[in-house]
Specification:
Layout lengths: L11 H36 L1 E4 L4 E4 L3 H8 L1 H32 L7 H8 L1 H4 L2 H11 L5 H8 L13 H29 L3 H9 L4 H12 L1 H16 L3 H7 L12 H10 L5 H25 L4
Antiparallel strand pairs: 1-2
């Protein structure tokens, strides 16, 4: 005979605690609803309309703004540049951060604290300031050209800032250089907590340094690597300020530094009656970021 389950009744104290919890959560829920949920809903609404900001008129266009992307060569170029930027920067910054953190976690290296402090300084500097510094470094008469010409690698300086073949690569180098210290610190904090007994047991079994890295360190750091990959993908796909400063908002030279985020800005605030198209681009970018993040998570062993 099956015994019927008794429903648990909440006591007055439990009910009061629940009401107090909702009361404390209410401000956060209101803020998130206004600035996140409602903002996304409004962006989706805009993406299906032609919007005139001056007269505040909305003309329903259905999926026209989304279909326009496949006919817009500029959008395809921006998507290609953004994807190239992400697929180059994210793996390299993750690899360099892991290698440097692994070296610094080794025993017997002097000056590690000083190196960590100095190496972390680029992370504290604004990306706008770093962009201006790198524009000076890679200028026609900048240190990079002077250095390579002194080595005799080429006779005439290269205009890295105005050559489509080099412009995006300069931003890639800058982004990798400025983000590696941050991710290195995250990896380093995790390596400090890694039990030394695992390495000792592996040494008894005759494991080499490569074996320890492959079978102990990397699997132990998998959750951290997932975090690094996800934040790296989100950051690179949203790259805007470096490209804007580098090209003065144009995405040049010859659209070589044009990204999806910069293009959204151009259509949203640089042209008339294209806010709806900009919203559609933003929705598509959000979907791409979500899909790329899920793919990276699965490839790294996530669920």
């Amino acid at each position: 005979m099956e015994i019927p389950k008794m429903k648990k009744r909440r006591t007055k104290g439990q009910a009061q605690e629940i009401r107090q919890a909702w009361l404390f959560l209410a401000p956060a829920i209101i803020v998130v609803s206004i600035f996140f949920v409602l903002a996304i809903a409004f962006a989706v609404y805009l993406s299906f309309n032609d919007v005139n900001l001056y007269s505040s008129t909305y003309t329903f266009k259905g999926f026209d703004n989304y279909l326009r992307m496949f006919q817009d060569k500029k959008a395809l170029i921006a998507l290609k540049n953004t994807a190239t930027f992400a697929f180059v920067v994210v793996p390299l910054q993750t690899l360099f951060a892991l290698v440097i953190a692994y070296i610094l976690s080794s025993k017997g290296i002097k000056g590690k604290k000083m190196f960590r402090m100095v190496y972390f300084l680029p992370t504290l500097t604004s990306s706008s300031a770093l962009t201006i510094i790198f524009m000076f470094i890679f200028n026609v008469y900048g240190p990079i050209n002077e250095f390579f010409m002194c080595l005799g690698l080429y006779n005439e300086p290269i205009n890295f800032l105005q050559e489509p073949a080099y412009a995006l690569k300069v931003i890639m180098v800058m982004n990798i250089w400025s983000t590696v210290p941050y991710y290195m610190t995250i990896y380093l904090a995790s390596l400090v907590d890694l039990p030394s007994s695992l390495y000792e047991a592996a040494s008894v079994d005759g494991a080499t340094a490569i074996d320890k890295l492959r079978y102990i360190t990397i699997p132990y750091l998998r959750p951290i690597t997932t975090y690094v990959l996800l934040t790296g993908i989100i950051g690179t796909f949203q790259m805007f300020d470096q490209a804007y400063i580098f090209s003065n908002g144009s995405g040049g030279p010859n659209n070589s530094t044009l990204t999806i985020s910069l293009m959204i800005y151009q259509y949203a605030f640089g042209q008339m009656n294209t806010m709806g198209y900009a919203a559609a681009l933003a929705i598509v970018l959000a979907i791409i970021i979500f899909m790329a993040s899920r793919l990276a998570e699965k490839l790294n062993g996530g669920r």
